Amino acid sequence: MKDFKDKVAVITGGGSGIGLGMARAFAHRGMKLVLADLDKKALAEAVKEFQDGGTEVVGQYCDVSKLEEIQALADCAMETYSAVHVLCNNAGIGIPTSSMNIKLKDWKWIIDVDLWGPIYGVQVFLPLIESQGEGHINSTSSMAGLMAGRTMGAYNVAKHGVVALMASLERELRARKSPITASVLCPGPINTNISRHSVEFRPPREGATGQIKPKVPKSGSAGDKIQAILEQGMQPDEVGTLVAEAIENEKFWILTHPWWTKGIQKELDAMRDDQTLTKG
Ligand SMILES: NC(=O)c1ccc[n+]([C@@H]2O[C@H](COP(=O)([O-])OP(=O)(O)OC[C@H]3O[C@@H](n4cnc5c(N)ncnc54)[C@H](O)[C@@H]3O)[C@@H](O)[C@H]2O)c1
After folding, report:
1. Mind listing the pLDDT tens digit for each residue in 84-108?
2. 95 CA distance to ligand 1 middle (Å)
3. What is the pLDDT at residue 218?
4. Which of 6, 77, 132, 263 has the most CB atoms around it within 10 Å of its CB?
5. CA of 42, closest atom in ligand 1
6. d(CA 169, CA 258)
7. Poorest-confidence range of 45-54, 213-222, 247-256?
8. Using CA atoms, how far apart are residues 106 and 216, in angstroms rounded to an integer?
9. Does 210 have pLDDT greater than 80?
10. Percent with pLDDT over 90 in the chain
11. Residue 219: predicted pLDDT
């Protein structure tokens, strides 16, 4: 897609971080926005920022792990603008988890948000975007979608699934000469509050009652250490620009830290040469 002006972009997790960075890059190119998020306060602040800047925008509360809420998001976009051209399946959470000790409840939460969210997005939005005769679907994976390290088992599974979803989709679209294209974003460390947000949104423990409650992250925890690394990372607005440029230039892979693929090459070499797994 070359011309963004007056086209409509739907961004999940658009209330903060990378999603907000994408929204800024798209608004800069003259797009109309539909921002979706589970965090009502962040969503309202983001909507206000774009309204104040003169961008047409609507915000929709949405839990991407629920098909009916993704459907309601599509209905909101169509009722507001009668069209959708770009979908960014970006909402996500991530906590450090041991593959051996993680509770099934956490497995389900991570897969539901990080993998089912993009699956529902593609299912609901693909026909709407194709009917426009041009458009694009992007999903946010991670470098953890290309190489499975030791500390983020469930997240690695979900993010590998997102890469497979988007690669299969892109190849299918090309094979049937679809007017729309697809891409996958695989960020390295980005300076967002994902670790804090993920702890806040984590479902209550077994036996606890009530809805998802905000929790205060423990200081010195593994999540805290990851957060400290992310604070040294790329700025989310730069990532938003990379995504917009990749859509313009029909790139499939969007890598914020392309030199990290050296580790993936080492893994492939060891696979081919002696069928062992590198340390990661
Ligand atoms: N920050 C990084 O270093 C990094 C690296 C690789 C991949 N990612 C991925 O980037 C994406 C965006 O994360 P971010 O770093 O901008 O974090 P973020 O926490 O700033 O943004 C994520 C947004 O998603 C929203 N969200 C969470 N669960 C949701 C749900 N069920 N339904 C709808 N919205 C929900 C949050 O409220 C938040 O606004 C995620 O998919 C994440 O896995 C981030």
Report:
1. 999 999 999 999 999 899 999 999 9
2. 11
3. 59
4. 77
5. 39
6. 22
7. 213-222
8. 18
9. no
10. 88
11. 65
Contact yes or no for 147/280 (Cβ under 8 A): yes
What pLDDT, on the 0 to 100 scale, is given for residue 225? 80
155 is known as an active-site residue: yes
| DSSP reduced 3-state for 209 | coil
| Ligand 1 close to Cβ of residue 145 (< 6 A) | no
Phi, psi for 175 (deg, rounded to 5) = -65, -35
> 8-274 has which fold?
Rossmann fold (3.40.50)
Rounded distance from Cα 221 to ligand 1 centre (Å): 19
Mean pLDDT of all residues in the chain? 94
Tell me the two tokens of residue 196: 């804090």
Q: Which atom of ligand 1 is nearest to the CA of 113?
A: 31
Centre a 10 Å sphere on the Cβ of residue 233 and count the other Cβ atoms it contains: 17
The Cα–Cα gap between 148 and 150 comes to 7
Q: What is the DSSP string of 133-197?
A: T-EEEEEE--GGGTS--SSBHHHHHHHHHHHHHHHHHHHHHHHTT-SEEEEEEE---BSS-HHHH
Q: How many other C-beta atoms can be found within 10 angstroms of the C-beta atom of residue 40?
A: 11
Ligand 1 atom showing the smallest separation from residue 159 Cα: 43
